[in-house]
Every structure is written in structure tokens, then in C-alpha cells.
Amino acid sequence: MSNKIDSLLKRGVPPDGKVVLYSNYAPLSIMSPTGFGGSGTYVYGGLGGVYPELYTKNKTDLVAFGGLSFGDPVKAVNVAIGLNMTDVHEFRDFSTNLNISRQLPRGNSVAIGTFQLFTNSKQSDTKGTTFYLVFSHAVQWAPSKTPGASALAYSLGIGSGRFLYNSPADIRRGKGKYATAVFANISYEIIRNVNINTEWYGTNLGISAGVRPFRNSLSFSVGADNLTKYSGDHASMVFMIGYPLSVKRSAAK
User: Fold this and answer.
1) Of 47, 141, 150, 245, which one's alpha carbon is 20 to 30 angstroms from that of 106?
2) Which backbone phi and psi does 3 adopt, to 5 degrees?
3) What is the distance between the alpha carbons of residues 35 and 187, in angstroms, rounded to a whole number?
């Protein structure tokens, strides 16, 4: 979820002077990463959760996260390093995320990364370390109400771990071991800095709204996941709230 905070892109202007549109500042997805990374140096933090947790009744699963983002994705790459705590109630089960993104011409961007690195297998019920590659594109003919941004963006990626394998509970209930490994998301801005997002995150389908309500960088998402019978036993509400705190914002030129 921490990748949703890491989306402070600067807009590119090629030599011919034509403005290239990239994604807006509101979250584009909640369960799957995008290729759009950050720009400049800042720390971020937030909280996400699911209610009710799969195969339980009236139980909330929370995730706290924080990290550091630095680098210029136009001249080189942006790097985001994050720390997760997936057992918030017991203040344990820590793991690390890493995302490296590169902004490409014509509204494109690509990222490689990993989730749940250095997970403690004795504490965690995750599917081990996840690696992924994702490509994103901001559609150039659909300008948004946010200057320099596109109202329509999509991503397509492939990954291991949580994108490739169903949970042990799913396997026990006969839903099979393997998910699709492929994930995708599409986002459309309905009003300024409010996106409606749909995504397939390897194991199931989700929808969400991504909102950046103020002029500062606070953002949040709320939606629902497990909307098909492919995995899980019921649909759940999902949410995420996060805030990047600038240390040194550099303009990507």
C-alpha cells in the first residue's frame, strides 16, 4: 500500500514545447502498484486496512507503513524504500518494500519492486517475498482538471508472491494454489483529484476511490476487494490513508 503514497510526479516538457501529461496526485489504485513513482526527497507514512478480514467475522486487518523516497525519475530513477508493520495490534511482523521507477516519454513510466522483503516467517502469514514489474501510461488525449495531468491512466504488470499464489486458506477450501500472476489497474478522474479505480490484483477484483482532498499531499483511498469468487469467502472494505512529508523536493527537468 505504501506505493500509493509514492506518486508525486513532476510534469515533463519535451524539446518541442508540448506538455506531456502524467498521472494526477490522487491514488490510482489500492491493491496493486503502478509504474508512476515519486520525484525528489521526502519521507512518507500511513495506515491501511481491510474489514472484515477474509475467512473471519468482524475482524479488522491493519497495516502501518512508512519510508523514504529520493531521486529524479527523469534524469535517472526514483527509489522508494519502505517499512511495513502488518500486525499492528501486536506491534510486530515487520517487512521491507523497495520500488525503483523511471519516467519515460509520452506519458509512460515503468517500475520494478518488491514487497514483504525480510519477512519473519514465524510471525507472518504472507506468501513470501513478492517481486513485480509494472508499466503505466497516462492517456494524452484525456486532460484532467489538474494542470499537466491526464484524467485517464492505466497499468499492467506481472509479479510473483501475492500476485502468483492464493492464500493457504484459499488452498484449503479448494480454490487452487495459483493466482494469475498478472495484475492491472485503470483510473479515471471524475472531478479534480478524485479518481475512480478498478483493478485486478492477481487474485481478485477490486474497486476504489482515490482522493486528495486538500492542497497539501494528504491522500486516501476507500473501496472494496474480493468481488469475485476466484479467492476469499466474501467481499471486504479496504482503505488507505497516507501523507508524504517533503525533505527536499527537486524539480524533475
Assistant:
1) 245
2) -65, -25
3) 13
How many CA atoms within 13 Å lie on the side-chain side of 78?
32
Question: CA 125, CA 49: separation in Å to the nearest integer?
Answer: 16
What's the angle, vertex CA 186, arms to CA 47 and CA 176, rounded to 5?
A: 75
* Three-state secondary-structure class, residue 169: helix
DSSP string, 171-214: HHTTS-SB--SEEEEEEEEEETTEEEEEEE-SS-EEEEEEE--S
Query: Against a cut of 0.90, is the pTM above it?
Result: no
Q: What share of the chain is helix, strand, coil (3-state, %, to 5)?
A: 5, 50, 45
Note the pLDDT tens digit of each residue in 63-91.
Answer: 999 999 999 999 999 999 999 988 787 77
Amino acid at 172: R
